Please model this.
Amino acid sequence: MPSVDSKHFPRHVQVLVAGGGPVGLAAAVELGRRGVDCLVVEPRAAVSHARPRCKTLNVRTMEHLRRWGLAERLRGRAPLPASWSQDVVFCTSLTGRELSRFTGVLGLAPQDDRFPETGQQAPQYVLEEVLREAVEEIAPGRLVLGSKVVGVSQDDDLATVTVEDGAGERAVVTADYVIGCDGPRSIVRDEIGARYVGGEALRPNFGMVFESPGLWEHVRHGPAVQYWVVNQDAPALVGPLDRTNTWWAIAFGVDRASGEREAQRIVDAVVGRPVRAQVLSTDPWTARMQIVDRMRHGRVFLAGDAAHLNPPFGGHGLNTGIGDAVDLGWKLAAVLAGWGGADVLDSYESERRPVQERVIREATANMRVLSTELLADNLDADDEAGARARRAASARIQETKTAEFHSLDLVLGLRIATSPIVPAESVGQEGATWAGARLPHVFLEDGRSLYDLLGDHLTLLTLGLGTSEAAFEEAARLRGVPLTVVRLPESVSADYAKLLGARLALVRPDQVVGWLGDEAPEDAPALVDTLSGRARSDGTTSAARMS
Model:
């Protein structure tokens, strides 16, 4: 997918993506791998290293990167390998007393068969660079830098997008569909009349990146991916960006003016002693808990920060946006390829909104106890009063923060509650079926991941002797739906069938179980119609129904 000069826009593309941050690029990778002609329009000519923003890529995001063939490339670029540290430390300062510690955090530690990829700590710019390269390697499509979307209109047949380059020159591109990944100040969101609903925190925060040669020599607590600093002078969250001199920090309750004026003092207080430090960038922000009132209007969709915002605690924001991109990407590709029906696109909001709302709730709960809420007297004292204060602090930290750092049930356990493309009789039954949930992972005897065997479209997973795929293969052929059949070896199929509670499973392109059973239903074509989004077809286009 080569970059093109902004003066050479195509007249028409299948999908135009407004915004080339991680979510827009992920959407382009998902679409491009499926042969969709995609144009990404991004104002920034280069990826900025000044503000690393997201630093946690969770297990689910890494599973998608594995599917795209990018997981190892990203790990090779990440300054902190997952093996370097899997700890979060709470302390009075980097040179002060340790209050509490969490280990095996954020999915950074393997857990047998539970997932094929651990999480990864990496600055957002590393992910963006890897995804830009991937987009440029995929044909067909284009990545246009230094330009922005300034207008969107549509009718029943096409969307019309006005794009402006850095010199103010404009071009018009038509597209079958548009994805707005253009962030909190989204033009696309405004153009379709959507708006954020929700609130924001009252307390400001001051983010910064600083360089401090030799700082590691003073860190008392060993390597960690985050240090929560609990002291009156600078309640803060700090962590390394690399294993040498570069750090990020968030000072809680500090506004822009105070942060820029007192940056060195904040660094010294976080460390617990004066150190040499150079502030490389600052990023004042206030947490927002917001979601749009609608994520789609006709042929135009919203994803990532353009659709939802949450506090960063727990590291869910960017990862949720990547999930949006994957969900919408395979669904648009299915419709454009002809095997997906109108219900596929209608399912985007019904499936993603509950995920986004839960992430907002969880991140907001994580924000209720920060370093500012853990302040107490005597935390650094050498006497019995200090020991009691530290024990009390540790108990409260373990009680209130465990869910933030051990959140795999949220990351991997989300289940579709309602969707037009998952059979209503099986979806959302917690504990009764895996339908509507991520397919449970298993490694095979030869070391391969089950996920590596799944196809790019629908996959029929067959387990054990006596199962037959013939009815599904015929139904898929009749309906024109691409189907991959995977028969697990006998050595693992019995145990896996027991785990699933079925000997047959139809798996969607996003590794979500669409249907389970021991034998094909009598009307297998009708089931395929449901999974491919054509069960409720009434002769009108999805775009017409949503406009």
